[in-house]
Amino acid sequence: MNHPIAEDRRLPTIQLVHWIANPVDFIYRNLGEEGNLFVAQIGRLSPAVFICHPAGVEEVFKLKHDRIAGVSPNLLPVVGSSSLLTTDEPEHQQRRRLILPHFHGDRIRVYREIMREVALSVARSHRDWGQLRSFAQEITLKVISKIVFAAGSERADRLQTKLAELLQTLTSPVRSSFLLFPFLQKNWGSWSPWGQFLRLRQEVDEIIYEIIRDRRQNFNSDRTDILSLLLSARFEDDTPMSDTEIRDHLITFLIGGRETTASSLAWGFYWAAKYENLREKLLEDIAKHGDSGPYLDAFCKETLRIYTPTLISTPRQVRDRPVRVLDVEFPAGTFLLPCIYGVHHRPDVYPNPYKFDPDRFIRRPYSSSEFFPFGGSNRRCIGDALAMMEMKVVLAAILPQYKMAIDPVDVHPQRFGITISVPDRLQMQWVDRPS
Ligand code: HEM
Fold it and tell me: Hey, which of 381, 382, 384 would you mutate to test ligand 1's pocket, going by the most ligand atoms within 8 Å of its Cβ?
């Protein structure tokens, strides 16, 4: 089998601007008829090979880490050098082994009630027309702050406000450009995007370090928030994590967990408001099974398939020896990008791919290289189970009690930093709510 490889032949600057301004259209344009692989120039990640075929994705996920490195250089100024997103092997696996158990199984079941309470209290406080995106963001920021810090103190409230401002900068299409163009990382005063980012990062860091210090002094081993768990974690040589390392992990969870989950929740509400018949099916399923029914599960998966919050997995860079993917050889230095959006819209895997159809997940199972909103292999999202649980718990809490109207009814996804979400002009209001 020989897979031709398409190439974006426009000027590199035009490719990069297109990728930043409208990544969905960029992928759609480059996929071409063959739709398996294409190569493009997108700034620091060049040459980038977008892999849009399930067999190719599986091959990349199976490559051992001595052949490829997972890299997110653009996020270094935000998440720091100890984050899972910025460390290479073997340090990455050592940290992952320590952190992963806190995000799975029984450990996360204790967060279900937090999610339900937050969802209902945000829904109650929402009265007039407002942005659907900020409604979802308010829920996910409150949930992740409570899970990470057991928020509730004055300090944690201050942190939430500052974090919301920092995230605003990082998700603004224009103000976040410094992440992609390092030459914009110049401090020309507090009015410049980089100067503003540095000020907010420092304010956020100061509060995080205060919270860490306070928690070390008043340590309580019964606490179940992530910060307390990181404080008691020990590496294999029995050393604890430093404050700087804990800061890097916390900011990664807060940033990684807020925007992506808000995007998937916003789309979930959008589809339920847009299609009355699907909402009815959801309500029947929730009435029978609560937040663990098969239709709610399929609905959440289809929401994550059609407009997956992150279009690509973490880029994998070929180390010193070439690797082969789909029978094509790629030299050292190439960035391999498993393209989630590209695979999720293949008509041979998902017939009628632009139709929102949750039943497709009931009709047949999909493999981990056909459906992979959370990426895969040693870099798979550590928040996957938490995010799926949050989507289900929040939708199951709100939909039976509140009916949402949206305006406009037809929208396209928009880029916000490293995620795509519903556009800000999409407004929502309750048309039916408990009195
Ligand atoms: C719907 C919600 C979410 C989506 C769609 C999502 C998606 C992703 C994707 C695609 C990756 C890259 C995986 C790869 O390269 O193979 C990733 C990595 C990551 N995500 Fe998420 N994520 C979500 C929620 C969360 C949450 C709630 C957290 C934390 C609380 C989180 C923390 C992380 C971290 C730490 C990584 C880096 C893992 C590593 O490199 O070892 N994410 N996520």
Answer: 381
